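Narrative of activities, Objective 1.

The group set out to show that a structural description can be obtained from nothing but a protein's sequence at a throughput compatible with the screening campaign. Below is one input-output pair from the validation batch, recorded exactly as produced.
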Amino acid sequence: MKLAAVVQARMSSTRFPGKMLHVVRGKPLLEYVLDRARLSEHIDLVVVATSVESTDTPIATYCAASGVECFRGSLGDVAGRFLEACELYELDAFVRICGDSPLLDAALIDRGVQEFLESGADVVTNVSPRTFPAGQSVEVVRTTVFRDACARMTRAEHFEHVTGFLYQHAREYRIHNFTNPAGNESEIDLSVNTPAGMSLFERLIEHGEDTPALPATLTRYRAMACS
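Output recorded for this entry:
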């Protein structure tokens, strides 16, 4: 089975334009996300999926200079962008990773893929329902199923949010959700969607350690909150 991590990235974020190439400790945010995906033991390939809009050319240029696979598709039809990437790279399944997740624990990717391989599910996810912090989302999706879902999508929200159609039609697909052994921590936000989120990220890695497991990240997060 050929399985890739597909990182969804764009420069035109409404809350934080240009965040993907915002430099933190000498490297752009996108590189932190890619580094986390590369730590996974089950990923064959890491692909950045961005748009054909001129605003996203800097992402494509960065990927070309860094030797990173980059696919460019529709800005608004993100689901279509993912499907086209799957077809181009002949993927049997993909792990959807949002570009706002520079603290994503690679162990969650491995857990999601392992459960996907063992369960035979169409989708393995930890967001339906969510018990992990924001910024720790993992979705593993079978390409054949995703192709079927894309053909049935009709709403703008389906095209934009990629997997929303699958959850809305959960009775028609085999969807397996894995939960947080530490309990519900969904109120914690470790994603980078705003300048405030970027500031938090910078503080969390200020000593240069940017690849700890989620429990270590949360320990530091809570210590900061109490200081």
